[in-house]
Write a structure and sequence with these properties.
Length: about 500
């Protein structure tokens, strides 16, 4: 589904961009340099809901803010120089910026003036260095206890969960304050999976940086590969071959299909309905095997690179994909009937974990979290990139805001992915799958791709010598984790695993 034509500039976006001086070193988005007063004015427009915050990050001497104007589906980037190492806090006016600003403070050393929450976020005092992406300073910290927010009231008690969990999952700490079984407050403590990806990518050869990007969150390796490759291609002025672009979309839909099948089953399993989990797990395994047959790797890791893809679709792989599409398409209606016809399951999912439409809109949540609460956004359509601008697909949007809505969005997206995979295989163009990219070009590029849990963003600056001068990756989870804290309030503690799985935020993609 192609994005509808829009005016050259919306009034909101035009007003915001008029506050600054155009800078031409970023492709393909518009970008402006602003002063402190204009930076605050933009934060006020974000707080008023006139634009969405896509990302906020820093580097030595500057902070950058990516925003999106939903009215005309146009993005832009704003840069503020910070020669004195400080800048007006966006989070003081727009809460979704608080956690990114806490990360900027620790990673780069830039101080957000007026930041409402000055506690550490990613840095647990175990790195041995402070501000590693700014001016590194040695640190001998052994870690200080985290100052969780206090909740006062009669009959309240706290339940600490994690960071080590019972299953084979990523680490994260959840501090529940409850009255009996009812959750009054949930506070998250993340950062345990911080690997310093942006530091590792700085100065890395582009090929190695692409591998690192694909490991930001392994379940979204295709989406990250697409976002990073498109950012590099934009910076270098390169175009991948048409066949490579279509193969990327094929891989993205296979990745979405496998993950949505896994999520639907896991949600049902957390509601004590293991039968659905067994069926979807078997289907997910078939999708992964077909992906391996087609592209040599179950997760299709390291297949997407700047310039195209490194592996063409194998003949037996094409047959395997068509076969698994038929299998899933045949099985899906019975699974939907099974879900609909199990009252004990509906009792657990319907009305549970409501993420209100207002909160989801404020945090610009993507993926099933956003679309299950009425936010009609999909990067494949709204920031349309090839070949999605030529594919026919629907974007399911529901308004119930609960676990059930998030399940139903996933089921609808499974159907949409099956149709797109058919369309891609039918219309797949011939020709090469890899084109040269001039890695001696110095420039900046930015791109967004739609992963199964929402939009991921990649910004990259090329050094001009075949290496990455700087890179920033942003997972959809950055803006979904805070909403999860609100969605559990008023629910019982025993429903948290169910609610948590319906969000399925990435720890690694957040912690980087």
């Amino acid at each position: 589904m192609s994005a509808p034509e829009t005016p050259a500039a919306s009034s909101v976006l035009a007003d915001l961009l008029a506050l600054g001086r155009p800078i031409g070193d970023l492709r393909p988005w518009q970008a402006v340099e602003v002063g402190a007063a204009a930076w605050v004015a933009i934060a006020e427009r974000l707080a008023a809901g006139e634009a969405d915050l896509l990302a906020l990050w820093g580097e030595p001497g500057a902070v950058r803010l990516a925003l999106f104007d939903a009215a005309t589906r146009r993005p832009a980037l704003v840069r503020l120089s910070c020669p004195e190492g400080r800048y007006p806090s966006v989070g003081a006016l727009h809460p979704p910026a608080i956690r990114p600003e806490r990360a900027i403070r620790e990673l780069v050393g830039l101080e957000p003036i007026g930041l409402p929450d000055g506690r550490p976020w990613l840095d647990h005092g175990r790195w041995g260095v402070r501000t590693p992406l700014g001016t590194p300073q040695p640190s001998s910290d052994t870690g200080e206890p985290y100052a969780f927010l206090k909740a006062e009231g009669e009959g309240l008690h706290q339940i600490p969960v994690g960071p080590v969990h019972a299953g084979i999952i990523e680490p994260g700490h959840f501090r529940f304050t409850a009255n009996g079984e009812t959750v009054v407050r949930l506070e998250e403590r993340l950062g345990y999976v911080h690997r310093g990806l942006e530091g590792l990518m700085t100065g890395a050869p582009i090929a190695h940086a692409a591998m690192l990007a694909g490991r930001a969150s392994g379940d979204s390796t295709v989406a990250y590969g697409i976002a990073f490759a498109r950012a590099v291609e934009a910076a270098a002025g390169a175009e991948p071959p048409p066949r490579a672009v279509w193969l990327r979309a094929l891989m993205a839909e296979l990745e979405r299909l496998a993950n949505h099948l896994g999520d639907v089953g896991a949600i049902c399993n957390d509601a004590a309905f293991a039968l659905m989990h067994a069926h979807t797990a078997a289907l997910r395994e078939r999708v992964l095997r077909a992906s391996a047959a087609a592209f040599g790797h179950r997760l299709m890791m390291d297949v997407i690179v700047p310039g195209g893809v490194v592996i063409d679709l194998r003949k037996d792989g094409s047959d395997a994909i068509r076969a698994v599409v038929g299998t899933v398409r045949t099985a899906l209606p019975a699974l939907v009937r099974l879900y609909d016809g199990t009252p004990s399951l509906q009792d657990r999912t319907v009305g549970t974990g409501r993420a209100t439409a207002a909160l989801v809109a404020r945090f610009a949540c993507g993926g099933p979290v956003g679309r299950g609460s009425g936010r009609d956004f999909d990067a494949r359509r709204d920031l349309a990139y090839p070949p999605y601008d030529r594919l026919a697909f629907s974007v399911p949007v529901l308004t119930a805001c609960d676990v059930d809505a998030r399940v139903r969005v996933r089921l609808a997206e499974i159907e949409a992915s099956l149709s797109m995979i058919d369309e891609i295989l039918t219309g797949l163009p011939g020709g090469p799958v890899l084109a040269p990219v001039d890695i001696t070009v110095a420039g900046e590029g930015i791109a967004v791709a739609e992963a199964f849990r929402g939009d991921v963003l990649a910004w990259v600056r090329l050094a001009g010598d075949g290496t990455v001068a700087r890179c920033h990756l942003r997972d959809a989870s950055w803006f979904q984790w805070p909403v999860l804290e609100a969605a559990i309030e008023g629910n019982i503690v025993a429903d948290f695993p169910l609610l948590n799985k319906s969000f399925n935020c990435s720890y690694a993609g957040h912690d980087l």
